[in-house]
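About this split. The held-out portion is used to measure sequence recovery: a designer receives only the structure tokens and must propose an amino acid at every position. Recovery is the fraction of positions where the proposal matches the reference. Here is one held-out target exactly as it appears in the evaluation file.
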């Protein structure tokens, strides 16, 4: 029979484990505020899948044309500047949409995608989703919005066969540095971020998504970029 005398011990050990988890997370996430992440689990997975080295060139935020983060915000997370890692309005819309049936719609923010790409692995499970929420919370506390964007732009998958980051994408698709991207080219790269390995820039999805991104860029301009 369960003894009430055991309960305080369980509470104490639970608290200790939680404290250890918090300390490890703060050290891990906090370190990436100052140092750049290495190869992510997804990058290693793509290397194994294609038996080739990842194509990625790290670029600092200030060395990327401002049209690129703007295009990504317009395409992935229009309220990035204002929310604290979770877009509650987008979540509510996604829930209402999913309850009606049809294709499942997500509401991941740029911060959530960064957490998933940097700290977690491929696949879907409630454990992974819970960890995504956990890391998202700490990223928003420990990093600036600009740092989130900088890491995001360097670790996202941007094409088939282990292509990662906007600099590698810019060199691959347009033979130029990300510092020289035009507004239209930035929108082209952003248009395939939701499906980098399955939909090329000439696909109907990319075409529609690119037009959506360009409309948002024209309408709001740099006002939605974090300072």
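Reference sequence for scoring:
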């Amino acid at each position: 029979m369960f003894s009430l005398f055991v309960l305080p011990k369980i509470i104490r050990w639970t608290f200790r484990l939680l404290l250890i988890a918090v300390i490890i997370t703060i050290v891990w996430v906090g370190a990436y505020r100052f140092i750049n992440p290495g190869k992510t689990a997804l990058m290693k997975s793509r290397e194994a899948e294609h038996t080739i080295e990842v194509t990625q060139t790290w670029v600092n935020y200030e060395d990327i044309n401002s049209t690129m983060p703007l295009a990504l915000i317009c395409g992935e997370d229009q309220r990035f500047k204002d929310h604290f890692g979770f877009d509650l309005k987008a979540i509510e819309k996604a829930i209402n949409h999913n309850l009606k049936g049809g294709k499942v719609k997500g509401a991941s923010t740029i911060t959530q995608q960064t957490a998933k790409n940097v700290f977690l692995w491929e696949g879907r499970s409630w454990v992974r989703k819970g960890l995504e929420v956990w890391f998202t919370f700490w990223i928003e506390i420990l990093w600036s919005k600009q740092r989130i964007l900088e890491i995001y732009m360097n670790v996202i998958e941007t094409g088939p066969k282990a292509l990662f980051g906007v600099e590698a994408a810019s060199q691959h698709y347009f033979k130029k540095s990300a510092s020289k991207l035009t507004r239209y080219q930035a929108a082209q790269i952003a248009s395939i971020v939701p499906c980098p390995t399955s939909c090329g820039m000439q696909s109907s999805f990319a075409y529609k998504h690119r037009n959506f991104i360009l409309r948002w860029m024209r309408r709001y301009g740099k006002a939605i970029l974090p300072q």
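Annotator remark: The first strand starts at residue 157 and ends at 159.
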